[in-house]
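Researcher: We're teaching a course module on how sequence relates to structure. For the next exercise, students receive a sequence and then see the predicted structure as tokens, so they can try to spot secondary structure elements on their own. Here is the exercise chain.
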Amino acid sequence: MRVEKDSLGEKKVPKEAYYGIQALRGAENFQISGLKEPEVFIRAFVSIKKAAAVVNAELGVLDHKIASAIQKACDEVLGGKYLDHFIIDVFQAGAGTSFNMNVNEVLANRANEILGGKRGTYDFVHPNDHVNMAQSTNDSFPTAMRIATLWEHGKLKTELKNLIEAFEKKAKAFDAIATSSRTHLQDAVPIRLGQEFGAFQVTLEKAALRLDQGTEALTHLNIGATASGTGMNSHPQYASKMVDQLSKMAGLALKTPHNWIEIAQSTADFAHYSSAMKNVALDITKIANDLRLLSSGPRVGLAEIKLPAVQPGSSIMPGKVNPVIAECTNMVCYQVIGNDAALSYMSQAAQLQLNVMMPGMIYNLLFSSKILTNMMKMLREKCIDGIEANLQQCQKYFEESLGMATALNPIIG
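Model: And here is the predicted structure for the students to work with:
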């Protein structure tokens, strides 16, 4: 063990730890879920620290030797090292201060080693004075939230596009197959099976457009706002240079905000994007419900389509196969909807110049994005691509539906 000291006193820290006393206090205080912030968020946060070291050195406020050591430490973490030294639970108070200090301490301790020092001494590089220079948790944490969410959006967008294309292929394949539509779950007018799948395609195209629209506001970064949006303790050129540097590092087209005070106190941008993901989930769960209903049977259900069999369905009934992919899809969608509800409560909890619920918000955002992305890939590969139409059943419904009489209305009234 080693002994570290902060404003509250001394504390023993594991000798091999790259985190320090403040991260340890946070980990001990918030033993809630065992869940840690995702790796993508760690990478986004460390990217901010690296950019800050570059910019502060360029502006002449940080020694180049120290800046270089911090950058090397950042590169090591970005390369996958020391991830087990980020120890803070996602349910942490203080607007993410514990996590920010966890990052600062890991990077400072590693930078000290690079310069010939020891962990816990901070002789050459200090967590607050150097790694956190010109920053506050209040601007660095939401900036990392924005970058991480935008990174994950790329994956989500790709899988949604692939799913849309899968429905488009089925719409074309089923376009000549006539069946009966149903309203109120009762027989209605004739419809082509391809039209039903084409509607699924267009539904998701509109959802994708709304999702993309939700990302624009996320490109405006908090960095440079410092504690309350005033930019106190940062160089006048710091914010603009940070946005330029982070744009290069993150591979994103990032911008400064329209209003610094607003972006410091409002988390509406995150709530908006979460809502867009929720709407994707609402659309997909409706589609999954339709697929389950249309495939019901095989002998006493609708049985218009056949879903791919991916596993045995029952431990007691021989030969039973269940629509497990569609069922899993439903569960994921409901979880995304629940995550959005939790995030909405967290978003409205802001008071004056700060929302302290950001750690929970980013966990829900990234969790929703991850499971939605993985679910869409599963749904496409294990269900949509292999759907088959039951031609005889569809034709039977088409011929027997009383909805056919509707076509005679213009003639006989």
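Model: If you want an answer key for the exercise: The longest strand covers residues 186-192. The chain is about 55% helix and 5% strand.
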